[in-house]
Amino acid sequence: MTEDRSVSDVVQDILRNLQEMVRSEIRLAKVEIRGEVNQAVSSGAWLAAGGVAAMSASIFLLWALAYALATRMPMWAATLIVALVMVAAAAALIMNGIRRVKRVHPIPERTLESVKENLAWMKQPTK
């Protein structure tokens, strides 16, 4: 027993299905973007922590190590050596943060692929 449906009923069903597909794509995009934002925040925290560590270390260690080295060499040479060591440490921390920032993808790629598939499906002629 087949149910005879009017054209308007069929069109309404199609429109409802399309609306649901769009809503689903939007929900998926929100989930993907939220994940990327969390990763960006985490990367920013690493960069900030690296910066704070580099500044704190340079303030306290620079003078302590410089005074210790100054017992064996001129003060200018001691402070130069300590400063170069601190620059290397700061560079390592900052490079780690930059590497993590580069992993962030602000474009929701899975959602885009899904939208492309849906568009391709909608463009297919119906029989």
Helices and strands in order:
Elements: H1 7-69, H2 75-102, H3 109-123
Helix pairs in contact: 1-2, 1-3
Structure description:
With 127 residues, the protein is mostly helical. The protein has one domain (7-120). It contains three helices and no strands. The model has no long low-confidence stretch (mean pLDDT 85).
Task: Give a quick set of tags describing it.
127 residues, mainly alpha
Please identify the structural class as seen in this structure.
Answer: mainly alpha
| Total number of distinct structural domains | 1
Please describe the biggest sheet, giving its number of strands, its sense, and whether it closes into a barrel. Answer: none
Indicate the overall shape: rod-shaped
- H/I helix tally: 3
Strand content: under 5%
Output the helix-strand order. Answer: HHH
Q: Which stretches are low in confidence, meaning pLDDT under 50 for 5 or more residues running?
A: none
Terminus-to-terminus distance: 21 Å
Name the average pLDDT.
85
Please tally the β strands and state the result.
0
What can be said about this structure in brief?
With 127 residues, this protein is mainly α. It has helices at residues 7-69, 75-102, 109-123.
